[in-house]
Amino acid sequence: MAKENHWEHPAELVRNGASFRLCEHSGEGGGAVRGRLATTFRSLRVRNYRLFFLGQAVSVSGTWVQVVAQGWLVLDISHDSAVAVGVITALQQVPVLLFGAWGGVLADRWDKRRTLIVTQLVAAAASFALAALVFTDTATLPGVAVIVIITGLATVVDLPTRQIFVNEMVGDEDLINAVGLNSALFNATRIVGPAIAGALLVTVGSGWCFLVNGVSFLAVIAGMLAMRTDELRPAPLVARAKGQIREGLRYIAGHPELRANLVLMAITGTLAVNFPVVLPVLAKDTFHGDAGTYSLMTAAMGAGALVGALVVAGRKTIDERLLLLAAVGFGIGLCVSATAPTLGFLVPLLVATGVFNIMMFATSNTLLQLLASPEMRGRVLAVRIMTILGTTPVGAPIAGFVCARWGARWGLGIGGVATLVAAVVLWASIRGRAVPAGATSDELVSDPALA
């Protein structure tokens, strides 16, 4: 039976009796800034990861274009119903809630590169279908609902597989950096994507937004096909067996550092991370804006999140105290943003909230990958995805109801209070056991098969 993971020295993470050392690339011969940049972006030296990174830059930008356009389309065809926005947003995550654990099992069993090609093709087809509905003026709430459920089914397998695949490209030595860069990329596109969406919505309409997103998936597929498969480092695939989901859940229950992390994600995923529901209503009803206002809000959070992701990617230490700090900052940011009197006050507050938001999620992701045993990695990450996205079918309608009944400010405020409560839960867990000291990127010890 695997020993419980723990840190015994600020420069060491010990797990399962095996270890490796991460070497910091300091950019010898260059100045401090050059060395810092070399460290922060070191994963891009790997050709396969560069192809993946560039494909994701295009694809995730397209995804944000669709997120903005989908919320606006639902508001339009539902005659400004915040509840409808919440329900449609929730339906996309229902498959994650119902089948997310199976997604983790399949991610452990199947070839990661081939699986990702299939999931990208399914997601592209769904986006093209949405575009067709809009172009033919046949978009209805039931039609949109069916398509977003199909997208959600692809997401069930895609997300845990994609996270594990990062390790197959960069190896153990650059995992922390690659996770941070993925978060930075995701949030950089939160600036680009909504800006593109805003321009398209006010000029040619939402149909072109969905078409752009469908085409963007082809960039990921092209990158996957161009990879040198002999340079990948695939972990052994887990053989099919009965009880693998239960086995994963028992593993999580037996490790308090994993359990507390996932409780934090569950609470914030349910009540705090409902921005596709809250922000459109905040833009339109509270600040009497248009699609451009909504895009500005989303881009502001994306700008802050980009900063937060780069902070995590460039850190030399990471532990649960950083996770706690980020959660507290995120909760306070949401509460203060809910009271902003004008759009001019709100935008910088959303930037700050975005910083702590992505610090919390990137730290959570990194800690879980570092602490989970290799054979449980897919299932642990799948549970994390379920606690964030799978709780949306519960949280999104609640957020929609709150916004419709009391206004979007309450939607933000309740999320902030919930996050602070979750931070208290995490703090109580840390108080009840030895808190691991910060593991450093200079001298981090971990399992050889870590992802």
Write structural notes for this entry.
The structure is a single chain. The chain has helices at residues 32-40, 47-77, 82-109, 112-135, 141-170, 175-203, 206-226, 244-253, 256-271, 275-286, 291-313, 320-337, 343-371, 377-390, 392-406, 408-431, and strands at 6-9, 12-14, 317-318, 439-440. By secondary structure, the chain is mainly alpha-helical. The protein has one domain (40-231, 244-440): MFS general substrate transporter like domains (Growth Hormone, Chain: A, Up-down Bundle). The strands form two sheets. Strands 1-2 form a two-stranded antiparallel sheet. Strands 3-4 form a two-stranded antiparallel sheet. A hairpin with a 2-residue loop joins strand 1 (6-9) and strand 2. The longest helix has 31 residues, at 47-77. It is globular, with a radius of gyration of 21 Å.
